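Example record used in the benchmark description.
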Amino acid sequence: MSNEFDPYREALVMETSTIWPPDYEDWELAERRRVEEHLHASPEEATELTYIRTHTGFCRQIMVTSEDVARVESA
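Model output (structure tokens):
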């Protein structure tokens, strides 16, 4: 699947998944959730976005990058 935002697949997203790199393991759960919510609310801005086909549609998977974190924290 593509790493680009896809409006067609986006309309069929039934699940979301967020992958955090090891650099952020020590972050508070509340802070990680805040960043995840922001990234999934604006998936077109995510640096690494993948759509995974499921039986019912697609799962939007975002791999968190330092660029994503910097953008969310400056917002």
